[in-house]
Amino acid sequence: MALPQWRKNQIAVTISGSFMNFGYTLVMSFLPIFVRELGVQSTGGIAFWSGLILSASPLVASLVGPLWGRLGDRRGMRMIATRATAANSLFWALMAFSQNVWQLFFLRILLGLLGGFTNVAVALVTQLAPKERVPSIIGTLQSWMILSAALGPLFGGILATSIGVRNTFLVTGIMNFGSLLSILLLYKDQDASTTPELIAPDKSASGFWKRPQYFTALMILFFVNMADRTFGPIIPLFLEQLGTPRFGLEMVAGILISAAAFGEAFSAWISGKLASRVSLRRLITGRLVLSILVLLPMVFVHSTREFSILRVLLALLAGGTLTLALSAAHPVIPGEYRGTGFAMLSGTSMLGGAAGPIIAGAIAGFSIRSIFVFNSIVYLLMIGFVYRNVRH
User: Fold this and answer.
1) Domain that holds residue 71
2) Are residues 231 and 114 in the same domain?
3) Do residues 171 and 287 share a domain?
4) Does 201 map to a domain?
5) Rounded CA gap, 287 and 382, in Å?
6) What are the tens digits of pLDDT across the range 104-128?
7) pLDDT 10s digits, 116-171
């Protein structure tokens, strides 16, 4: 029995997104090593350039994402997907030939400008999907993308040791070529001949972003992603404070980070399944309340084991919240603005992810434990937004 086109689209986008996330963490987890190879020797310089190169692409992608999404609404999403996957394949491979940090930085900017597949992934995967399947499809996409990102550092470490970081960039470029093939072979837009052309477009639809439910989804994606990313810079430091031996610190931190990523992947998948059976307001509010109940005990933990258990529990809740926020926004995005709407959501999520480490660094100078209090306050404010603006 032939698969319906919406299912082929789902497979194509899920394969592409998974390859890209896997390829990203395959090599970028070891970026400081490559920065040193490019001539930067001081610890401060390596940290500065690594942060700048890491943030360049998502920052540019978050700014231009809505423009690409709008172009996709007008010209077809397949064209946008082809452009993004081709750009990723090309620029990741070119990074392997960088001779200095400026060239690598410039290529990362170009990748953000012309790549940005994540910005339109949700719009791509839901374009032809039955309405009742949308939450499940979003959850499945997010879970696979998170899971693939969790596996990347493990294989990246093996490759970096055996063939070097520079050659690992080439491997990432080849993997992204697989993403391009998946779009070219499987993905199709809606048949234009089946779309009525005599109906005038609804001019009021362009103001969808002002609707309370959509604005609340934007807030959730920004602040929950921001709160989740505050853990990145502090986990090794906090584990050390809790008594983790210095010689095993990297291993313990790596295991905890991977376990949390697997938790987020599972949470995204199960939340997509539940969204069609339980009201989104109840699900999102419940997740946020439980997140606060997990964060507050973190302030008082005294052992690595206690913190690790709470961190994984929080990841199980956070991944689901982001999926549910996208599902809540979906019904209020007009079909003719699907690419724009989801690109704005993804871009906002990226900005939150970029803000998290900066805030964590500022607060950690005072107290690492105060970060958990800050995140609890953020989640409490989000509960008020959801209760007021998300429909039953």
Assistant:
1) 1-189
2) no
3) no
4) no
5) 11
6) 999 999 998 998 788 788 888 888 8
7) 788 788 888 888 888 888 888 888 888 898 888 888 877 887 888 888 889 999 99
195 assigned to some structural domain: no
CA 85 to chain centre: 16
Which CATH number characterizes residue 170's domain? Answer: 1.20.1250.20
315-371 tens-digit pLDDT: 888 778 888 888 878 888 887 777 788 888 888 888 887 778 778 777 877 788 998
User: How far is it, in rounded angstroms, from Cα 209 to Cα 194?
Assistant: 27
